[in-house]
Each structure stands twice: as C-alpha cells, then as structure tokens.
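WARN no homologs supplied; continuing
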Amino acid sequence: MTGGGPIGDIRETTVKGAVTVKSHPFHDDRGRFARLFDRDLLTSVHADRPIVQVNHSLTRQVGALRGMHFQGVPHLEAKWIRCIKGRIFDVAVDLRHGSPTFLKHAVVDLSAKEANMFFIPEGCAHGFQVIEPDSELLYLHTAPYSPGSEGGVRWDDPFLAIDWPLSPTDISKRDLSHPLMTEEFEGLKI
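OK structure emitted
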C-alpha cells in the first residue's frame, strides 16, 4: 500500500502491514496546523480495528530506550505512534508466527517537525530511542491495555540485530529483564 493524497502519504516498511504516514501540515506566518487524527486515514490502513485507547508519553533523556513491548493473545493490539515533540528512532519487530517478515524489523525516524506517524500491526513488538530531549509521543491503540497479556523481547537481542543510533541509556529494569530469544522461538500464533 503506497499512496498519497490530502490526508497524507502512506508508505510500506520492511515489516508486512507496518506503514508510515507523512502528514501535510498547513504552514503560514503564524505557525503550523496539522491534523492528528483522521478516521478515513486510519480506516484505510486498518478498517476493522477502531481506536479504543489513546496514550501520551514523555521521555526526557537523549539515548533513553523504551521497549520492545507487545500485547499477546487474546489482547493483541495494533497502534499508531506519532511524535508530537522532539524526535525518536522508532522500531517495530514482527513476532507473528508464519509471517513473511518474521523477526525482521522496520525503523522509522519520527519527529514533530516531520509530522509523520508509524502504524504497527498486531503481533509486532514496539520500542524507541530518544534522539532529542523531552520527546513526547501520542499512541492510538486498537485494544485496551491488558497487564496479563503484555510481553516483551530484548532491545539488544542478537536475533533482531537492531542498530540503535545512540548508545542506549536509561533502560527500565523491566526492559532489561526480557529474555533473549532462542532458535526454538516460533513467534506469536495469532
């Protein structure tokens, strides 16, 4: 799916079903106006999955790393990520059993300046690293948070070989505790 129009330019990534959208903000001498939510755009990518939860995060330190998180069966979620302040290096990893892009990852540079978004489908882990201080993200989720279904994979797992742009700092104990994958890992059966 690649296309463009008044809503935004949609581009495929290296992970099946994960796309980026480049918005077209309006600029004038007063500043900028950008549409943050557009039902037509969202349904063109995931028609059968409405947004049910919206979250906001602030990460202060450059180099801070969050992830790699996902929700498993039966509470799988897709999500849209938009950076509304600052800049991040955003990553989605395909954990879907049988997917043609299984264990591959897509990387997107998200920034408030670029007014772009990243759609991450169900069965993919998500994480990011902060490139500019005090970066803020807006998350649009297709399923409510379910603590019993949350999972994660290691940000530094050799099977994933993610090339983070900065030396990672400020990683939570939870994110450090995710197990490394083994060759027996079959993925999420969704």
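The longest helix spans residues 39-45.
OK
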